[in-house]
Amino acid sequence: MPEDANSFTVTRILTAEDIAQWEQKFAQAYQTVFRGEPYRESFTTEKAAGVFRMLTALNDHITLIASDPSGNILGFGVAVPLSTMKTIAPRLDGLVPVRQTYYLAELGVLPEARGAGVGRALVRHRIRLMDRERFSHVVLRVSDTESSSAAMYKALDFEDMGVSMDVTRTRTDGHIRADQRHFLCRVISQRSEERRVGKECRSRWS
């Protein structure tokens, strides 16, 4: 069911019809969000749509769209099991239990919708939808450039893991460059076995 929050609605993408309905709007929003600061990344419409199709094809994905009353997309958020991210999971193996961890793969809010709580709603709603019997941790990565999104995640109890990786992308100036992304983590389940793992991984970050 959609979730109303002031002037926007958060809807979960579940069916093939949902994916078809939102694919092009997602692609356009994705291009707009990531061509801005701090990323300055350049994506074709087809590449952005391919990101949407790839993520929504994964088992246990949690894909949310925030829209206004007219159906215009304001933001998007996607979470997938960390084990499905083959280039990212090995970086975090040993710090978090990979098979019990979700990865917040995408979060984007259009410039005109920022400051209205859209990003926080997309993060919180994804976490609420995670099965605490199967998943105990959530991780994500943020740009090394200080940003409002990094501050938001820390306000939502995410902690810096002290781990980073370079991400190479085509930039809006046409050049291919790498930038550094830092990993943040939050423990969402307090079951006894996972509490032990959580304490262990937190001690490694400090």
Would you mind describing this structure in some detail?
This protein is α+β, with helices and mostly antiparallel strands and about 210 residues long. Helices cover about 35% and strands about 30% of the residues. It has 6 helices and 8 strands, in the order E-E-H-H-E-E-H-E-H-E-H-E-E-H. The chain has helices at about 15-35, 45-55, 90, 120-130, 150-155, 190-205; strands spanning about 5, 10-15, 60-65, 75-80, 100-110, 135-145, 160-170, 175-185. Strands 1-2-3-4-5-6-8-7 form an 8-stranded mixed β-sheet, with helices on both faces. Strand 3 (about 60-65) and strand 4 form a beta hairpin. The protein is globular. About 35% of the residues are buried. Residues about 190-195 have low confidence and may be disordered.
Summarize the structure.
The protein is an alpha+beta fold and 206 residues long. Helix content is 34%, strand content 31%. Helix 1 (16-35) crosses helix 2.
Task: Please supply descriptive tags for the structure shown above.
single chain, 206 residues, alpha+beta, eight-stranded mixed beta sheet, 6 helices, globular
Strand arrangement within the widest β-sheet reads: 1-2-3-4-5-6-8-7
Contiguous runs where pLDDT drops below 50 for at least 5 residues: 192-196
Write down the secondary-structure element order: EEHHEEHEHEHEEH
**End-to-end Cα distance:** 40 Å
Kindly report the average pLDDT value: 90
Percentage of residues in DSSP E strands? 25-35%
Largest sheet: 8 strands, mixed
List the total number of helices: 6
- What is the percent of helical residues? 25-40%
Number of strands: 8
Shape: globular
Structural class: alpha+beta
Radius of gyration: 17 Å
